[in-house]
Amino acid sequence: MNSKFLKSCEWIVVILLSTVALSFLFVRATHAGALWRDEAATLQLAQMPMVGDIEANFQHEAFPIPFPLLIRAYVGVFGASDASLRWFGFAIGVALLAAAWFNSRALDDRGPFLLLSLFSLNATFLLWGTSLRGYGIGCVFLLLAIGLTAKAICQPTRANAIAATVAAIGSTQFMINAVPLIAGIAASAIIVFAVQREFRKAGIVCLCVTLCALLFVPYLPSYFSADWNIVLKFPTDLASLWPKLHSAITEGASGFLWYLAPPVIIVAAIWRLWRLRGEQSSVDYRLLLFLTCVPIFSIFAYYAFLKILSYATRPWYYLPLLCAVASAIDLAAGIMSRMKSFRVARLAFTIAAAVLLPATSWNIAHDRLTDIDIVARKLEQEAAPNDLIVVNPWHYAPSFYRYYHGATHWITVPTMSEHRVHRYDLIKSKMVETDPLNDIRSSIQQTLQSGHRVWIVGGARPPEPGLPLSIQPAPDPEFGWLGQAYVNIWSMQLADFLQKHVVQGTIALSPNEKVNPDENIALLVARGWQE
Length: 531
Hints:
The protein is 64% helix and 5% strand. The chain contains 22 helices and five strands. Strands 2-1-3-5-4 form a five-stranded mixed beta sheet. Helix 19 links the parallel strand 1 (388-391) and strand 2.
């Protein structure tokens, strides 16, 4: 295979893959549908009357203040319709592709072959990176931080150092999960300069990352004072984290790509570093050392972050880590592709990804993120003013608050005084009550006895053998402060109460197979009261 033909094939494949990625972003923008609960909470936080309200409540959502402020500004210009906000996700996806291309071209490669394969067409990114959350824009800045730091290692100028620092600051200001990854990137750059005995440059990296950390410090009091996060704490170790990471990697058909490419490229990069050990001052050696350290340090730093956080993770928690690893692997592969054999292997790998990924991710790209708008519309049409709507569990409240505009009174399980954002502090206060569902049972009984209907948004979890139907005020001797245990038992208590006292219960809406399971909501209706 001559070089001219190989170069042509590379351009065709990388442009084709970029076009496919753009088309999938378009599909997400036009098919994702309504905002699911986390997105609705983000929007409603951004739309609070005063900026001071955002400052007082941002810790109840997952991202620092600049992200809801960005959404506030965007909504002020483009409106808050679902379509407008889906195009925001599309724009973020396009920005990520542009950042990937910028990184690749900055290091004199032909395009982001592996980042497109490993990340841009990964279903976890398509679903959650384009949602109305800070992960997408945080990953854009994270990509730029890696690329600009690599460029600064090649050309250690003041402008490049400032650009890399600005990108790092942007990433941590929009996404708290970027903090350990920026630390890993900085540590990798310090290693490179320390090996070269360029300690002044290593000191400059320390100053840059210190500035990044200092600008994050103002958020710490709000996060550290949030004693309610004890209800989210979960025993965290490698065994508990791995299944969700595996899910994030293997969503769609990208699993084999992830399990193949990073290990092979890291091993190949280490081998290449060994071959270049006599040329440690060369640009290739410096870059490969940096790009080999980034994924390794990122994995350890992110594990430490999740260990300290101690939350039960979900696949989208791993988007920043996947972004950092994919970016470093992609750039390292570009450097090693100056060897013809590796260049051919990378092209073959990318062709396989281009053939396999679009076919398997197509259905996922069409999935709605929620059916709460459909549920709300049916209730607006059929629920009578004197009926009662019960939203179970409580965390569906932000999305239901956005989409339901009927006259029927609605409550959550347990009852909450705030529905716009996720208030775990209010859940914590309910967990210490002896009977937090007493008012809900009374409302249901009164509604049914008066001949009206009770609509259950989300249904109720039937009692299960081996699981208790009662739980003590927190901390429970068995479950401690584990909030999800209380939510599950409250749902079973609700189901038990309905089974005993409802004359007729029917399914008004069944879950839809084309809706993401994280918010695929059934709607039940109960009629008649019996003692």
